[in-house]
Amino acid sequence: MRTLTVAVAKGRLGEKAAQLFGAIGCDVTTLMDALDGRSRSLVVAEPHRHLKFILAKSMDVPTFVEYGAADLGIVGKDVLMESERAVAELADLGYARCSFVLAVPEGAGIRSVEQLDYNCRVASKYPNVTRRFLARHGIQADVIPLHGSVELGPLVGLADAILDITETGRTLQENGLRAIATVGESSARLVANRISYKVEYERIGAIVEELMGHVVQGAAAE
Ligand code: PRP
Question: Is this model's pTM higher than 0.85 or not?
Fold first, then answer.
C-alpha cells in the first residue's frame, strides 16, 4: 500500500489536525513532538495507516498539495483563498473559525466599503484576497502586503484600512479599529491533490468520512 503524505501547518491548526488524526487511530505521538518543538523533524512517519506527515508553514501547505508533494493537507480557508492553488477542497473540519473583515479606524467616519477614498491604502496579510474584494467593489486601492500585526497599519499612518481575519474581535477593538465589511468566513479545511484524490479515491474517501465523524462529535461536545 502506498504511503499517503499529509501536510499539516505548524501551530494551533496543526495541533488540532494531529488530534483529529489521533482520533481515527493514527499514532500521532511523534507528530505531536514535532509540532510542539520537542523534535525538529519535518517528516514524520505514521505506520498504522500508512501515512506520513510533513510539517509546513501554513501558507505553503496548498503549494505542497498542488504539486503532489503531499496527497492531503489541512489548512485554513483563509490561506486557501489567498494562495490560489489548485487543490481539491474535501471537507470543512469546523475548527479555527474566523472571519475576513475590512476594518478602518473608529474615528475615520467610514461606514461602508464604497466610502473608501480613491487610491486609499489597504494593508493585509492577504493581498490577493484584498485585491479581489476591492476590485469587486470597484475600489482602486494601493494594497500593502504585511506579514503580521496588520492592525498597526492605520495606527502609524501606513494604511487607511486593513483586511484581516478576526476571531474574537479583540485585536480590532483594542487598536481602535472597526469592521465595515465581512469579506468571507474561514475554518480549517481538508484538501487533496487533485490527481491523488482520483487515484486513491476510496482510501481518501474513507479517511474523510472517519475524520468527519470526529468533527461532528467534537462540535457536539463543545
Ligand atoms: C490574527 C489576525 C489578527 C488577530 C485576530 O493574528 O491577523 O491580528 O489574530 O484575532 P482576534 O479577533 O481574536 O483578536 P495572529 O495572532 O495570527 O498574529 P499576527 O498578527 O502576527 O499574524
Answer: yes
Q: Which residues surround ligand 1 with Cβ inside 6 Å?
A: 148-151, 164-171
DSSP 8-state class, residue 77: H
Per-position DSSP letters for 123-179, written without gaps between them: EES-HHHHHHHHHHTT--EEEEE-SS-TTHHHHTTS-SEEEEEESSSHHHHHTTEEE
Do 165 and 103 form a contact (C-beta atoms < 8 A)?
A: no
DSSP character for 185? Answer: E
Name the H helices within the chain: 12-23, 29-35, 61-66, 77-83, 127-136, 152-155, 170-174, 194-199, 201-221
Q: pLDDT tier at 39 (50, 70, 90 boundaries)? A: very high
Q: How far apart are CA 80 and CA 45, in angstroms?
A: 25
CA of 82 to the centre of ligand 1 (A): 16
pLDDT at residue 220 above 80?
A: no
Start-to-end Cα distance in the chain = 36
Q: How far is the centre of ligand 1, averaged over its atoms, from the C-alpha of 197 (Å)? A: 33
- For each of the domains in the chain, give its residue range(s) and CATH number, in order of start: 4-96+187-221 (3.40.190.10), 98-185 (3.40.190.10)
Q: In angstroms, rounded to a whole number, what is the distance separating the alpha carbons of residues 21 and 30?
A: 12
Beta bridge partners of 52: 5, 45
